[in-house]
Amino acid sequence: MAETGRIVAIVGAESTGKSTLARALAEALPALTGWRCTWVPEVLREWCETAGRTPREDEQAEIAAEQARRIEAAARTHALVLADTTPLMTAVYHHQVFGSSALDTQALAWQQRHCDITLLTALDLPWQADGLQRDGPHVRQPVDSRLRQLLVGHGLPFTVVAGQGPRRTDAALDALGMLWRRQAVPRAVGLFSRLDEREARQPAWQWTCSDCDQPDCEHLAFQRR
Asked: What parts of the chain have a pLDDT lower than 70?
């Protein structure tokens, strides 16, 4: 089987900066790593803009499948792909809107099989209206909770990314550098060497929490930075 690039999944509730973060990382990482990088936009947004409406229940599975196809296609031609949502987000929305878990199993299996790292965008950005697929600030907490429930419940590790503006991008870059070293990326090619230098200049810290899926706990940690 042909080798494919690494995939970074960026998931989170609406209006938490997923698209902005994906673009920023795709722009920053080539200079830091020497890798050919790209980002894959959210299919749901494109679908809603084209159809002029939100999808019906029976149309959700194809949206998830198309999201997967585009991410996999990008990974065949790039060393690193930033995925602005994955089929898992479609499954979460499916549950939120239609009360159905029918898409969960396949979405979780895809996430586990294809994604090297999952970044979860925190709820620390103000909600903004943007297109048909956004329901309102009241849905962010339930969506965030559902995402955590699925990720934690199925043993899929994730890193929460918070902060305003460049600080959010920096937090994601730090997470990527730290997690990739754990996977023993070959050092001979110098990948993430500049990320290592960034972290070496910063004081080391460790946060251990037995309830790491609790957003209130995370918010306290972010406030201490």
From this structure: 1-3, 129-136, 178-225
Which single residue is written with the structure tokens 């979780």?
108
In the chain, % of residues over pLDDT 70: 74
Beta sheet of 117-121, edge-to-edge order: 37-40, 80-84, 6-11, 117-121, 159-161
